[in-house]
What we know:
- The complex is a heterodimer of chains A (279) and B (335).
- Chain A contains 14 helices and no strands.
- Chain A is mainly alpha-helical and 279 residues long.
- Chain A is globular, with a radius of gyration of 23 Å.
- Chain B has 335 residues and is α+β, with helices and mostly antiparallel strands.
- Chain B folds into two domains: 2-228, P-loop containing nucleotide triphosphate hydrolases (Rossmann fold, 3-Layer(aba) Sandwich), CATH 3.40.50; 237-330, CATH 2.40.50.140.
- Chain B has eight helices and 19 strands.
- In chain B, the strands form four sheets. Chain B has a six-stranded mixed beta sheet with strand order 6-7-8-3-9-10, sandwiched between helices. Chain B has a five-stranded antiparallel beta sheet with strand order 13-17-14-15-16, with no helix packed on it.
- In chain B, helix 2 (92-103) packs across helix 3 and helix 3 (107-120) crosses helix 4 (136-148).
- The longest helix of chain B has 18 residues, at 166-183.
- Classes of the chains: A mainly alpha (279), B alpha+beta (335).
- Chains A and B meet through helix 9 and helix 10 of A and strand 6, helix 2 and helix 4 of B.
Amino acid sequence: MNQARSNPLNIALMHGALVLYTLIALFPVFVILINSFKDRRSIFREPLALPDSESFSTIGYETVMRQGDFFLYFQNSMIVTVGSLFFILLFGAMAAYALSEYRFRGNMLMGLYLALGIMIPIRIGTVAILEMMVATGLVNTLWALILVYTAQGLPLAVFILGEFMRQVSDDLKNAGRIDGLSEYTIFFRLVLPLVRPAMATVAVFNMIPIWNDLWFPLILAPAEETKTLTLGSQVFIGQFVTDWNAVLSALSMAILPVLVLYAIFSRQLIRGITSGAVK
Amino acid sequence: MTALSLSNVNKSFGKVHVLKDIDLDVDEGEFVVFVGPSGCGKSTLLRVIAGLEDASTGEIRIGGEVVNLTPPSKRGIAMVFQSYALYPHLNVRGNMTLALKQEGQPKPVIEERVAKASRMLNLEPYLDRYPSELSGGQRQRVAIGRAIVREPKLFLFDEPLSNLDAALRMNTRLEIANLHRSLGASMVYVTHDQTEAMTLADKIVVLRDGRVEQIGSPMELYNNPVNQFVAGFLGSPSMNFFPAGLIEDGDNRTMGVRPEDLFLADDGAIMARVSHVENLGGDTNVVAHMGDHQITARLFGQHSIEAGESLRFGFDPARVYHFDQNGMRAPNFQG
């Protein structure tokens, strides 16, 4: 046993550091949550106090609910995030498999071209993207967002998944070929389950920026029926007056689905590692 | 009838020429072992036979049919991999039946073959387990079972014992030999371990740098190696080589004597200083230096020899090999 790991003082220090970091990371979330349950006056008078019988109020949540379209925004955000993740993982894994498994002319060049996307932020191309979306009539549809986010997520997905796919045993794929499995079956049934931890990593990396993005919804889909949650919450933030109760309540609710998605993926992260394919 | 025949097979990866003009025939029911140092192309050759790599030129026939363009699953082969390569998401039964299901075999046939193979390999208690719940030896048996149920024309083994520990390796080696006897099937086996080659093979193919050095039965190769490489590769401990000039003046060839052909003799031709002794109980391996040249003698029985002693070794002149400057076998007597 590693001595550094069994020494109680070391364990205490290690956990101390981790607990401290957790507190720092969770503090803003905590502040948002408690303040979303207080009335406007209490938010400003004592922002760090817990809601008590006097200051407790669900006025923020009521405003958000009354705003009507909040569930639609919610639904839009969910569709865009899940849809984009699905396409990123599907196409990213396919491209990564092709690049890592098959020898063909231009393999290296193609890999580099895809990796370039990691270095160049997609927002540089916003004007061109907008023109394209106008030309194809996709402005103010959720497809516009899904396509853009898929493009944004693919380079990193191909890069990470490619590295993992190179580690999948060749023998396993060859055994499949000798047993008469098609290349698609080998990909979906043998390779994908083995790179599940990497897929979960890619999903988590991509999910949060997509969920939180304000830029593209504002430019490509600002219509009422395609607003995402982040864009929808902006209604409460005015130039002169901001409805803090509503903003905080909206944000509190926006955290939930991301938490659920994260829980799903992180479970995969752990499960994927424990398989006994090869020695 | 020949189970497998290769004629003029070449394989290049880009500019690297990996296999060079391989010609080989494997008879029905024969156990052929490819042996050679790592990087000699033996695994590549096996993959070419399996169809996992295409031959650059040359013809591959399995059971008389040219299979150069046939995909691996249609070649009538089954392969056992070094890393077992079991499907992690399927249990033992699933692993064994997958290929048969792909072939579209009827259910009773599949069940009968699985029952037969699992009886042969003592896998019956494990049929519903997953690969992750099996030990290394059990996994290897499942991999072999997966090959048996297909009833292939040709079995291919790619270093199947390398991942097992020494005791298990010996057992599994016996099992494979028994399997070959009871199935009577043609098998091609790749290994870098010359013991496996000597004990299992009907025919050994020694490869070096993508070229066939010699083909023959184990005893042919042991008794009559065509060159210094084959002589040094087979036999354990390996053959001693030293300049023949050390024994006989004016001889510029290399002389080779097997460690087991050296014996202690007071008037022996070889005078050497012992540097290390390995007492194995049944045998004693003596490592000694004759000038700069290290030689190993394998003496039968137990001897009390200490490092630092000077000893004289003798040998039977008829059991000595001579090699010319190119490493090719030369006649024993110059003239």
